[in-house]
Input
Amino acid sequence: MIENIKQGEFVYCVCGDFSVKLLIDSSSAQQLTLLLQSYNLFHIIDFPTGTTKVSSSAIDNIFIDYSRINSFKVFSLIYGLSDHEAQYLCVNNIFDRQTGSFRHVKKRLITKSAVSVFIEMLKNETWDNIINHTNVNESFNLFLNAFVIIFESCFPMQYVTNSVLITTGLQ
Output
């Protein structure tokens, strides 16, 4: 976490070995992604970070808030001490002051019509396999997966042009 001392604002960056393969569409990847997206954090590593002779994966990742960080670059650093590669994040203008301008922000657009469709889809979902399941954990996971699929289809992440403040740098 990095604090902008002058304005008292925080910029969050979460990084580490999550042991979740984010380049593969899976339940674990969706759950981790949705959890961090609820805090407006999105993963930025889109290349393999661990390779062996037979496979590669991206279980190491960095999550940042696109709306708070103006520009960044991320690189892979092979240092030979592990089967994981290090990621190097270079952030520009992180402690900047803000002035008016437009920029693209990734958001969920929630409208009255989308909420109506969401409610209708939840009503029409067949919940029998969840209700009749005997294992509570499996029942919850089935419910969560069904709910997330409906939620994602009704409220997809989209880039929108937003009137936000662009930074000019601390003096």
Notes: The CA atoms of residues 133 and 139 lie 6 Å apart. Residues 1-8, 164-171 have pLDDT under 50 and may be disordered.
